Amino acid sequence: MKAEILAVGTELLMGQISNTNAQYISSKLPDVGIGVYYHSVVGDNPNRLKESLKTALERCDVVITTGGLGPTQDDLTKETIAGVFGKRLVLHEESLTSIKNFFNKIGRQMTQNNEKQAYMPEDSIILKNNNGTAPGCIIGQGSKVVVMLPGPPSEMKPMFDDYVMPYFKNKSEFLIESKFLRVFGIGESAMETLIIDLIDGQTNPTIATYAKEGEVTLRVSAKVKVGEDSEKILKPVIDEIKKRAGDCLYSDRNQNLDSLVANLLLEKNITIATAESCTGGLVAETLTNFPGISKVFIGGVVTYANEAKEEILGVNKQTLEKFGAVSRETAAEMAEGVRKRLNTNIGISITGIAGPDGGTAEKPVGLVYIGLSSESGTITKELRLSGNRNRIRTVTALHAFDMIRRHILGLKIEIGGQK
Amino acid sequence: MKAEILAVGTELLMGQISNTNAQYISSKLPDVGIGVYYHSVVGDNPNRLKESLKTALERCDVVITTGGLGPTQDDLTKETIAGVFGKRLVLHEESLTSIKNFFNKIGRQMTQNNEKQAYMPEDSIILKNNNGTAPGCIIGQGSKVVVMLPGPPSEMKPMFDDYVMPYFKNKSEFLIESKFLRVFGIGESAMETLIIDLIDGQTNPTIATYAKEGEVTLRVSAKVKVGEDSEKILKPVIDEIKKRAGDCLYSDRNQNLDSLVANLLLEKNITIATAESCTGGLVAETLTNFPGISKVFIGGVVTYANEAKEEILGVNKQTLEKFGAVSRETAAEMAEGVRKRLNTNIGISITGIAGPDGGTAEKPVGLVYIGLSSESGTITKELRLSGNRNRIRTVTALHAFDMIRRHILGLKIEIGGQK
């Protein structure tokens, strides 16, 4: 079955909010065998909504609308869609009682216009709103189904999960199950080249690649009959991709590199300290996003000025003078210094030129060194990155996390540099 | 002029990412007199893209596409749209050179499929991609204009700002000119109440308030003919708002609190060092987003464990034992310690409980102390914040920046706490 998600709301067209509802619904529908083919957004305008609904019904079997079910005059999704199907709106007593109870509960007077929310298209399935006032509904006509959901995500999501997913699951014959593989260290086009025969040769499962800043995600999707195991379709292809991507493939469960590293550190109880220059604390800040990380993340320093590198990390003045702040040598001493200072298993350091200024012919913007110090010694990696300051910092942090991952798992670490 | 934003990408229909590009573009187009009437999303499928483009061209004057310009076989926006307009794709030498340079710079081999990105529709205006490989373009035919932009927001946004906005500005008869006023320390509904008479009474300019995490932005927009001065419409209203918001209004140029502080530090050559616990380096990381900040930001430390607070900052063991790590006393010693250690004008410290664990009845999640040490002494501020870990960290950082701003400008600093 094909679906379109049609959002109704001028605030989306004004750019005040992003259409996260479409993302949420889209991520779930494949599980019940429904492919999402289109998203669309229209404003609170009955004619444009009617036209958009007609287009959606022509090209899809299922149309899911979000928004426009509220109490104000702007809210006209129900009225418009009922009109297209030639249905009247009739008072749904149970919904009216729910709305009254809702206002009682929050201790506010129910205004007259709220009654409008209890008028529902005749012959529709009413979806109770446990988190707000506007009920949703499902209208079916022939082979077409229209589901209307409220706009606020806090109301839409539970209604969708509790009532809409079970409704479609009951009707579904096929399901699509996807696995997401995460790769760091191979660019998108190189990754595609690596597996182009698999992409071209497959119809079930299908494979798609897409790039995020500095990394690549692969989606492998199998279409199966209800009750059938997707594993036997997915596994051989995933195994083959794993073989080709090697240890650049770091997760087959759609995990971020940073959360993977945080989990590894916690699991193995490996303590860590960070010493950052051009990333300005990004690695520390990312790590400390994880609740409970204080067990292994002891501390970090951001040493921008040379004096800070000397004073806090004990980097040698001579090292800074001879090789410069952005050098393998300084990176090594920073990593060793922070590890010693905070008495951790791992010390990780970053020093580089994030730009836009500060580059020279010899040491251009984008030149970065990462140091990793541990009981088994210190290694440093050279990066030559492109892009703006923000990209250089983000990609550098990813490289640092990848180095930590490789160190913990005993994988090879390329040290970069062409000399 | 009416516009539709047409995103191309199966990853959107699979719910892997949200269509933030549409939000970004929608928030800007009104400034050049273009109203956004529709958003739509289609997958990487030439037939559905063609149909969607035709629908968009029927109902709108301007169609802006995002995505599908990359090097892989999936990427077919250019090919499809050129087809609809009956245009060939021709090699754009300059773009090919840019792409080659891009790969040289990052030290990776350019694969054959990347050349595809340099083939552009004939007679189109080429939009240079300064942050990636895929150029964009503008095709005009009769009264219709199609703009094609790359999908990654880090490439799309600067291309849109640098080339697309000026292109439309040149063609527009009316402009909407907006000023954005930034307020910290007054909530959204309190702010609206403060100026409700202005909001209700005005048609040109219009005033809108919107809340971001922890702060409020006011947009004051004047509609003017091209060449007409918006200042005389905007200024009286803005002056009145400034009077009412007082020193909580920190920018009338839509500047972030952090960038305002970075500029103040640089302008006045005030050096700073940071000592963070629960924010994990967020203040340092935010500050170091600013190019050139190394002149005044000497360094920072992230002291998660008590030992790190003692070892690096010289916080007294007794202070930690008697008052705890999350206390005014520890915050004060952290700020003083980092200032002394790195010999700066200002030392700023943060210690608190970001949750979800670690709270007690006496010291609940959301309790945070900020310390600011300078030549004129040390002050500490107590916050009691609500929300999840991420919100607590973000809002705490904003409070720290506001304290620095108030310190530098000699404004009053509330120290919080009810005793």
From TrEMBL, chains A, B:
Residues 4-170 form the MoaB/Mog domain. Gene3D superfamilies: 3.30.70.2860, CinA-like, MoaB/Mog-like domain. CDD domains: cinA (cd00885). It comes from the Bacteria. Pfam families: CinA, CinA_KH, MoCF_biosynth. NCBIfam families: cinA_nterm (TIGR00200), molyb_syn (TIGR00177), PncC_domain (TIGR00199), PRK00549.1 (NF001813). Belongs to the CinA family. This is Putative competence-damage inducible protein. The gene is cinA.
